[in-house]
Input
Amino acid sequence: MKKGVISLISLALSVTMLAGCGDKPASEPSGGAGGDAPKANFKVGMVTDAGTIDDKSFNQGTYEGIEKANKDFNMEYKYLKPAGTTEADYSKEIGNLYDAGFKFIVTPGFKFETAVFKAQDKYTDAKFVIIDGTPHSGDNNPVVKENTVSIFFAEQESGFLAGVATALHVKDGQAGFIGGMEIPPVQKFNWGFQQGVAYANENLGTKLVINKENVVYQGSFDDVAAGSQLAAQMYDRGVNVIFAAAGGVGVGAINEAKTRVQNGSEVWIVGVDVDQYQDGVYEGDKSVVLTSAVKKIDHAAYDMIKAEMEGKFPGGQTLTLDATNDGVGLPEKNPNLSDDILKQVDEVFGKIKAGEVKVTAEQGDLIK
Output
């Protein structure tokens, strides 16, 4: 699905704000890459969450957005990887970036919420972008200061589109869901996916079934072996396709699917956050990843840097990327989906954008 991305800058000026969800050595700054001279003293820093800069998820998506911004704005940038995943670990690296002159700091993920809450007061001359999270003191009451922007996504909408595409492809089989931690972004992917399947069954002639035992939250984002085991259990129960919104746990599910396909089974995985097609490649360019429920993480990072460069940083605001601003969707290329299926999904996407199809961010009567 090819969709033009509307700048978050215009989004910040027009929507109602919602309150709240290339590798280089970590210590090596990166200079500009041609073009005009960089803005004086403008240095962009990033602190990674758990995982690596090429994790096919939030770290990579955020970093790719920063790299894209560098090509356009020729700035200095670097990332730091914390020793752990505690508030103290994150705060230490935020401080290290600040001390090195990197005063525009991007943080990917909800685990940064309390660290950014403190940093926005401690470093008042710095700017902070927190993706999929909002600053708070530990009480979950958002406090977004003027030097901070909080960005969320409508995961339920990309999950819905993935559910429609999956139902159209599989037609009358069984689907499952493997989530990581049971937190709002993951829950919304699940609920959106189930709504998309239900929509296809009611309106597009499909009969895809989701049974309660095949909706599971593993409890982490890094247990690859557990992901393989959960996927194996579902496939053994007759599941044809699994939507895995689970980080490393999802990687385990992908590995299990690849093993089964190589042994003659026809099973699928739906990826999450970014296009995971390459992760599912098992032979030549064939992949077990049917499609992915995508969040435009790279655009979130890029557009905030662009806003800062143009003097339009929307500090103090909470932004939501959704269908109306093309902040969510499916990958631009979906080799495993037919042109007819993509056309039908595009039509549904248009109806979501127009408000003709409503996707809720709540569980309702859906399977937990």
Remarks:
- DSSP finds ten helices and 14 strands in the chain.
- The radius of gyration is 20 Å.
- The mean pLDDT is 90.
